[in-house]
Amino acid sequence: MRRPLVVANWKMNGSLASNSERLQSFLARWKGVHQAEVAVCPPAVYLPQAAELLAQSNVGIGAQDVSAADEGAYTGEVSGGMLADIGCQYALVGHSERREYHGETDALVAKKFVAAQRHNLTPVLCVGETLAQREADETLVVVGEQLKAVVDLAGRNAVASAVVAYEPVWAIGTGLTATPEQAQEVHAYIREQLGSIGAGVRILYGGSVKPANAEELFSQNDIDGALVGGASLNSDDFYSICQAAE
Ligand code: PEP
């Protein structure tokens, strides 16, 4: 039995005031015990604020990125140890925006995955194909290679305690969503690639998840929740998506 998980990725949005309002309005409704687990990934500078506001809640916190290194002369980087120190439980690794705008290769993403686990953070490994790759029928090859880079470095058993997020690049922030069937096909493939540990790994879908499409996506056998960008900035929408995961 895989516990559903919904993760908010705020990307580079927010301020002390708006973060506080958004989190408090969500917490006012997301009370008590829930079947679904929820975590929020604010920008790094706001992690301590989120840790404080979420301290007595059932909502976890995660970082949007983590350094592959542990400490030293890496200007601008934030290490897994630092993230764990301020109370993070999760770290996104290999988000497509980091792959695209910051040149993160499969090999670097794999190192970040290992670094996160070294500090007891649960990596949320993001994989997904571009539109050109989907149109060239390369989706499963691309996703398979992204996954393999991590399995080769970390070992398959390491992935057993991680989370995978399938995020087709063409669906992120575009309003286009993979159909439930398109997403299910890739999720099933990822699970199959993970072999014997696959059945226990939570695989999230990400890419323009909204209240209107969440339930149908979550009804697919191999979709265990969502990584939510744009809609997570609206606490009503995010609450509805979390409810749909229950
Ligand atoms: C994301 O950034 O991981 C994401 C899925 O964004 P959006 O929901 O806005 O497509």
Task: Tell how many strands the DSSP assignment holds.
Answer: 8
Provide the structure class. alpha/beta
Low-confidence stretches: none
Query: How is the CATH topology named?
Result: TIM Barrel
Q: Name the beta content range.
A: 15-25%
What coarse outline follows from CA principal-axis ratios?
globular
**Tally of domains:** 1
**Which CATH top level class fits?**
Alpha Beta
Strand order of the largest sheet: 1-2-3-4-5-6-7-8
What percent of residues adopt helix (DSSP H or I)? 40-55%
Give the SSE order as H and E letters: EHEHEHEHHEHHHEHEHEH
Number of helices: 11
**Span from first to last CA?**
13 Å
Q: Biggest β-sheet: count, sense, barrel?
A: 8 strands, parallel, barrel
Radius of gyration: 17 Å
Small molecules (ligands, ions, cofactors) in the structure: phosphoenolpyruvate
Give the name of the CATH architecture: Alpha-Beta Barrel
What's the average pLDDT? 97
Compact description:
This protein is of the alpha/beta class. The protein contains 11 helices and 8 strands.
Descriptive terms for the model:
246 residues; TIM Barrel; 8-stranded parallel β-barrel; globular; single chain
How would you describe this protein?
With 246 residues, the protein is of the alpha/beta class. The protein has a single domain, classed as Aldolase class I (TIM Barrel, Alpha-Beta Barrel), CATH 3.20.20.70. The protein contains 11 helices and 8 strands. The protein has helices spanning 16-27, 47-54, 80-85, 96-101, 106-118, 131-135, 139-154, 156-159, 180-193, 211-218, 235-244, and strands spanning 5-9, 37-41, 59-63, 90-93, 122-127, 163-166, 202-206, 225-228. An 8-stranded parallel beta barrel has the order 1-2-3-4-5-6-7-8, surrounded by 6 helices. Helix 2 links the parallel strand 2 and strand 3 (59-63). The chain starts with a strand and ends with a helix. The relative contact order is 0.15. Phosphoenolpyruvate binds next to strand 8.
